[in-house]
Amino acid sequence: xxxxxxxxxxxxxxxxxxxxxxxxxxKVNDVPLLERNINYLKSFGIKDFVINIHxxxxxxxxxxxxxxxxxxxxxxxxxSEELLETGGGLLFARRFLDHGEDFLILNADILTDxxxxxxxxxxxxxxxxxxxxxxxxxxxxxxxxxxDLILRGWLNVQTGEQRLAEFNKGFKPLAFSGIxxxxxxxxxxxxxxxxxxVMEEYLDLMxxxxxxxxxxxxxxxxxxxxxxxxxxxxxxx
Length: 237
What we know:
The protein is of the alpha/beta class. The chain is built from 7 helices and 14 strands. The strands form 3 sheets. Strands 1, 4, 5, 6, 8, 9, 10, 11, 12 and 13 form a 10-stranded mixed beta sheet that branches. A two-stranded antiparallel ribbon has the order 2-3. It has a two-stranded antiparallel sheet with strand order 7-14. The two termini are 27 Å apart.
């Protein structure tokens, strides 16, 4: 199985580090996030990667070169001309991923101990084109799921704004973990082009398609702010 690691973002919340470096090379206990996530996925047998780059992307390329790609096969999806966000970045990397096999997506700034084998097994069992890892934790935005864990909406916790596929029948609000398992048939379903969030496509597609959530209670830290690095260092040695 291939994994697409989103490493292109500017990481503005991690300034001043990201004034000079990509956020994917921010360190937790002296180990860069990108290295941690490559080794994390390797522990589940994944050694085939696509990494998208934009902000100080040359530093990521050089880092991988210095470490012999950590013994993996790594392809670079180079967005240096324009940062395309998650949806645009996924489409831009299509040539590396659209080969009939399911693949993973992981944000470079997410650290977790989620069992990838269980996640992928669930995805293959339900045979959806997209399965999203979610958990019951604090978040300013939540995805809403019915009793069968099918995506039916989105909620901004702070403003109360909702996007719903149907009347809210007591849907369960869960926070997205930044980890997806995808069947490449998704490339034929995405309508947007250019720069866009893949979540916008999911919220459109939930009207006509089944997108399942995979609920977990694993450690998950969004290493987006300096204080979250301190938190991550307590859990990831």
